Amino acid sequence: MISKLAPLIYLQHEFEVENKDTNSMSSTLDGYDTQPYTRKQQALDELIKNIFTQKGYTILSYGELNEVIPDLSFKPQVTIFGPQVTVEYALFFDLLDFCPE
Question: What is the pTM of this model?
């Protein structure tokens, strides 16, 4: 994700594979992390991070993305996310209308 409000990015790697275990609870295994799972993901991760850091962007961790911003709340009509505004919602989705179109 790339923020339009501040020079910030968040890079997440994901995977999904077939679960061949006959005793499985699900037909697939999946997950996500900020660290790459494969060498190709690692190469892409390094390329993206190098490009954006050279342009002055900060790369956020999962924890930083989910930090709650104190004393900031959504507009009354926004109820789906609960009362707490996170860095992700404020700076990547602009649910507070900081950046009018």
Answer: 0.77
d(CA 16, CA 19): 9
CB-based contact 89:81 (threshold 8 Å): yes
Residue ranges of the alpha helices (H) in the chain?
39-54, 62-65, 87-91
For 34-87, what is each residue's pLDDT tens digit?
999 999 999 999 999 999 999 999 999 999 999 988 877 766 666 566 667 888
CB within 8 Å of 95: residues ≥ 6 apart: 74, 75, 78, 81, 85, 89
Q: How far apart are the first and last CA of the chain?
A: 19
- Written as six digits, the tokens of 100 are 């009018």
Please choose, from the candidates 45, 49, 20, 14, the residue with its C-alpha nearest in 3D space to the C-alpha of residue 32.
14
C-alpha distances out from residue 40 to 31, 36, 43, Å: 17, 8, 5
